[in-house]
Design goal:
By secondary structure, the chain is α+β, with helices and mostly antiparallel strands. It has 8 helices and 12 strands. Helix 5 (about 210-225) crosses helix 6 and helix 6 (about 245-265) packs antiparallel against helix 7 (about 270-285).
């Protein structure tokens, strides 16, 4: 049923383990967080004979954008997400109406906590909420990833969007990107705490080495004659030149570490989980080469402060560091505890 107003919230995410595996049809274990993006949509009725338009206001930036609902032109920055979502929803056959959009959020851009996916998903839910249209959440994740790839220029996979859409309180999500099967995994931490610390270095997938890493994985697949690195085994690494061999070593090892992390959580063995976080970071640094001096300094500081494990979270080249602390250990002053939260939803009381 069409509404005059719709308000949607979509969370950011922390990827516990399983980095750069989504576009390689591998495994990952993310969870949604409390912070995210809220989009308030108000139906906009065009004047007689006028064209329907979208007007968007990014509150934290103090910036506006306005464009016709039919055939929005391309733009840069946050505007690329808004215009891309509008265009791709219509391309998918979903009916939209003219709208005024107010965008607010409390996930820092470039922090590695997926503010971009939160924005994409919140925009989708708010716009569809105005018209009462329905879209399957897997298809919505595909659509948002297409905006990231084709409108923003970042060749990301679907990890962020799926974590945002399917998040559950107190659970991480075991996602198999070969089948898109999602299995909730209880995150029983006891007195242990997961925290994020900002490295102080912003990143953007479209302008970092992220796209280059994805192309390297595709090149490895072409050499090996396989569809995805999910099919690669440990013996295939020796058949590849550098740095492709190290890229594949990371992906195959990371899929194994995801399974081991699930087993550690099921056994409530948080010491083992910490060791896996450390192993993942070492592989991201040495094999995938996506760390930076500022990220390394943050990881080293957390370990010095007593973390059982620490690693960059997200695609790398900056952003946040994830740390795991045992009970009784004081957290660094700049550490912020994170716990799994609910996935994206309409805020019924505000509609």
């Amino acid at each position: 049923m069409p509404r005059e107003r719709a308000v949607a919230f979509a969370p950011g995410r922390v990827n516990l383990i399983g980095e750069h595996t989504d576009y390689n049809q591998g495994l990952a274990l993310p969870f949604a967080i409390a912070e995210g993006v809220t989009v308030r949509a108000q139906a906009q009725r065009p004047e007689s004979g006028g064209e329907a338009r979208i007007a968007a206001y990014a509150s934290d930036l103090g910036e506006h954008d306005e464009f016709p609902l039919a055939g929005p032109a391309r733009a840069d920055g946050w505007r690329a997400f808004v215009r891309g979502i509008v265009a791709e929803l219509q391309r998918a056959g979903l009916e939209l109406a003219g709208a005024n959009l107010q965008i607010t959020g409390n996930v820092d851009r470039g922090s590695g906590l997926s503010s971009s996916a939160a924005l994409e998903v919140a925009l989708c839910l708010a716009l569809l909420g105005l018209t009462g249209e329905y879209c399957d959440r897997i298809e919505l994740a595909r659509l948002c990833a297409r905006v990231e790839n084709e409108w923003v220029g970042a060749q990301t996979g679907m990890l962020d969007q799926l974590a945002c859409l399917y998040g559950q309180p107190d659970r991480a999500l075991l996602i198999d990107f070969a089948t898109l099967q999602i299995e909730p995994v209880p995150l029983r931490l006891g007195g242990w705490r997961l925290v994020v610390v900002d490295s102080g270095e912003r990143h953007a997938h479209s302008s970092s080495g992220y796209n280059e890493r994805r192309e390297e994985c595709a090149e490895a697949c072409r050499i090996l004659g396989i569809e995805s690195l999910r099919e690669a085994g440990p013996d295939t690494v020796a058949r590849l030149p550098e740095p492709l061999s190290r890229r594949v070593a990371h992906v195959t090892g990371e899929n194994r570490r995801v399974r081991e992390a699930v087993a550690a959580l099921q056994a409530e063995d948080l010491v083992a989980l910490g060791a896996l976080l450390n192993a993942t970071h070492e592989s991201l640094r040495e094999n995938y080469e996506v760390s930076t001096p500022m990220v390394e300094g943050t990881v080293e500081r957390l370990l010095h402060d007593g973390a059982a494990g620490a690693r960059l979270t997200g695609g790398g080249f900056g952003g946040s560091v994830l740390g795991l602390f045992a009970p009784g250990i004081s957290l660094p002053a700049d550490a912020r505890e994170v716990r799994p939260g609910a996935g994206a939803h309409l805020l019924a009381g505000d509609c």
